[in-house]
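Following up on my earlier thread - several people asked me to post the actual chain instead of describing it. Fair enough. Here it is, all 67 residues.
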Amino acid sequence: MVPKITVEENAKRVEIMNELYELDERDKVGHPHRNCFTGLGQEISDYKEFARQITNFEKWNKRNYPL
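Reply from S.P.:
Thanks for posting it. Predicted structure:
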């Protein structure tokens, strides 16, 4: 079941997605996902996970832990 959200929460979500859409330049000719939001949420999720992983890598790399 989809959780119910308020009008304000939905408006904020739309604002964030529109900002990400513009940052990714999805309005530009030649973008593989031009004029759609498909995959944008997953890209941001992947980006956040990568940032978490790189932070962990840098921590252990500074301690000279071998790969």
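The CA atoms of residues 4 and 62 lie 45 Å apart. That should answer part of your original question.
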